[in-house]
Amino acid sequence: MKRRELFAFIAGAIATFVFDRARGKRGLRISTDENDPGYATWAALPRGPEGWPRIKTFLDGIEHGPTIITADEEEGFVYRAVLDADGHFQVDPDPNNPDAVWMETVYGNVRIVLPS
After folding, report:
1. Are residues 38 and 29 in contact, defined by beta-carbon separation less than 8 angstroms?
2. Residues facing 59 on adjacent strands
3. N or C, which end of the chain has less CB nearby within 10 Å?
4. Do the beta carbons of residue 41 and residue 101 sit within 8 Å?
């Protein structure tokens, strides 16, 4: 991505965020899925040394790590990978999707803390 495109992308993400706040949307939405409306916000965040934004995502007061794909404060949900008791990714039980990671949508009180 060229510098001009990057600035245009960041400006668009900021404008979307400001517009949503002006319309009364109070919650933040972030997503690593390029087809999700929360992707622009996620992509515009500053990166840490490892290349990822330093975001903390909480569901019902419990911090969740990098297994979250999408988090939405206003709608109150996270879309995340399912882990077993040992913290390993689970394979989707759908026989039509034998190689896919099992994903779930969990609802609750979502809070997203962005880097300062």
Report:
1. yes
2. 62, 110
3. C
4. no
What single-letter amino acid sits at 73? E
| Long-range Cβ contact pairs of 17-22 (< 8 A, separation 24 or more) | 17/41
Q: Which residue has the tokens 């995340």?
A: 80
Q: pLDDT tens-digit profile of 57-106?
A: 999 999 988 889 999 999 999 999 998 899 888 888 888 877 788 899 99
Contact 25, 16 (CB under 8 A): no
Note the pTM of the prediction, 2 decimals.
0.71
The residue among 10, 50, 26, 36 whose CA lies nearest residue 112 is: 26
- Residue labelled with tokens 């969740």: 64
- Amino acid identity, position 69: I
